[in-house]
Write the structure tokens for this entry.
Amino acid sequence: MAESFRSSTSPCQTSSRALAEAMQRHLFFSQAKSPSLATRHDHYRCLALAVRDRLLHNWVDTAETYTQAQVRTAVYLSAEYLLGPHLDNNLVNLGLRQEAEQACHELGLDLEELIREEPEPGLGNGGLGRLAACFQESMATLELPAIGYGIRYEFGIFRQQITTQGQQESTDSWLAQGNPWEVIRPEWSYPVTIGNHTVIGVAYDTPILGYGVRTTNTLRLWAASAPEALDFASFNAGDYTKAVLHKMQSETLSKVLYPNDEPEQGKRLRLSQQIFFVSCSLQDMFRILRGQGLPAREFHRKFAVQLNDTHPAIAVAELMRLLLDEHRLDWDTAWGVTTASLSYTNHTLLPEALETWGIDLFQQLLPRQLEIIYEINARFLRMARIRYPGQPDKLARLSLIEEGPHRKVRMANLAVVGCHHTNGVAELHSELLRRHVLADFAELWPDRFTNVTNGVTPRRWMAVANPALANLLDDVIGSHWRRDLTHLQALGKHTGDDAFLQRWRGVRDASKQRLVQHIHQTQGILLDHSSLFDVQVKRIHEYKRQHLAALHVVERYLRLRNGEDLPPRTVIFGGKAAPGYAMAKLIIRLIVGIAEIVNMDPAMAGRLRVVFVPNFSVSLGQLIYPAVDLSEQISTAGKEASGTGNMKMALNGALTIGTLDGANIEIRDQVGADNFFLFGHTAEQIHEFDRMGYHPMPWIEKDPIVREVIELIGSGHFSEGDRDLFHPLLANLTSHDPFKVMADIGDYRQAQNHVDACWQDPSRWARMSVANTMGCGFFSSDRSIQEYAERIWKVAPVPVEATTRSL
Ligand SMILES: *Cc1c(COP(=O)(O)O)cnc(C)c1O
């Protein structure tokens, strides 16, 4: 591992002894405790603070280098960052993992236990937020001058408990015990006016460490606070409670992360959150620009700003407002600067997930920005009318405003018009954007559309999550895969080597045993690590089709009860459903009901187990992804933009059963069709179903097994005799089946039978597993970021110089 490090990465030359002493010092000087009173959390904090001390030189030097060099900077605007715990990742990226283990040992502590003490910052819903986190880490590792901006939600994504009733939500107070990884910067705070209120955004900085380099970038998250000085001036003396109330209202802005797929309610606060963090971030960029003596009209030379979905798309109007009203540029210059600065990543093909905001709400909260949007639209449509004379339908589709009784602002249209590039996140997704979702824009501006296939960071998702695999790779192909994942190709020389395959299986088995132990300790269920681990962990959504996998489990249950001999399987589900998404919650309820019956049935012992792991998160992902034999990536073709869970599993040696959707297609291309279990209709065919009118009944009629499965569920077998509980789900599947579960279930069964056959030949499975890891080097987020930097941002690496400091 040491070989891929530059020798002077850790300027302190930290030894384990020095680290242990630093922890002891922090127990006294930071935690103010004697050893006899110290809790495990105290020890975690001491280690975190000792590690933080050791990254500060790099962090300060990075800021210094960027200031001195006046470098072009990539700016990532994202409403979500699903970071996961920092400690282990920072240890690995600093090259201090072994020292920390030794230091803890010297103090009679267990490093793994301390790592588990860190509450994870769950500031995202799922894939989109996790992508933002992987991208931050890759930008630092590639030594790119970059800054990430977002919101410091006091409560992240809700905690999920699973009872016999299904999902229960509670709040995630991740900050309750403090956060040793952030530094507050009250000197960098900005006012944002929303309606008649002004809120102040205060910066909280978190260091983002590159792997094996000095570069330590900043993630700057905004917390809302009230401008007290203003308040006291305007309130009557003595009306203290009113002043406090106003303070509380202001702070509400960054209180809580919105779960995905929630209905309309509470939208006012969400639009407020968007303008809040976008405006703070843009004002901060102007502060940096000013600090370097550059005028506002040079903004686009200094900053390349990426919008992660439409959540920050208000940046188009807000940047225009700042350039026009605050910096006094004329319209054409301001528009030139704006469109040269911004670029936009689209993340969804689901039409209902494209953001729009009612004009009335917009007018109330952001009147000036709405005025600017109207002006952008007027100029844009004037141009479009010349290009498309006599085509009012086309102009109506292009317009930034959706007309009708409830007029709305279309944020995706605003983003495309105001950005120099729009990209999708996998080849198929970008293709479908060009052909369907944004077809009119792609016709107008073909050169603005491009693809950047997503990736994941091999540091967190391999080196940190799967140390046993990392060690094996180091032994066999050397350690360079951590910074250039295409090195995994070198495994090709070893696929015929029996001793290597034996070690490979040992590594996989160890990961599965680690998960078995966790599930036993937390849920009291004992699993067989030698069975096939069949896993679907991701947000619960009908388009992801957890119900398809659940129906297949019921089918296996029936076949086993009929005396069929199937290889032992453990089916593991995990993922959160939006609290207001009834159908997704019912799917969880179904899985829990199935698990209860299957796991109690003596006839299933040693053959089938079903587990729903509660509160799926980054930490749990680190435990689960390496333990997967079969990765379920079974979304309706044309619905999953990319997926990144599919990449994490394949990189760790799982085989995929999947549809031709999102990045599955590219994974299959890379690992070879023989090493991928393909099934299902194509996006094209699904599109045809929708055009011609689809009905599930003919599919059900010709499939006696699926009829039996539906009848069994409908009979109350998995709901303590309650025949009504799953009715909404079954009625949906048999009458509309919007996500074409019934059209694909037969083919899914065939593919699953093929899985069983392959699993029964362990050395064949091991070779297929190696082929998956070996082929997936393309899916590093380093490669994604390199594409953004070269093709979209035009940002180049700037290595960080060490400063000599007497600290
Ligand atoms: C990777 C990841 C996701 C995204 O999973 P998909 O299978 O791509 O939907 C969601 N949540 C967490 C915690 C993740 O780590």
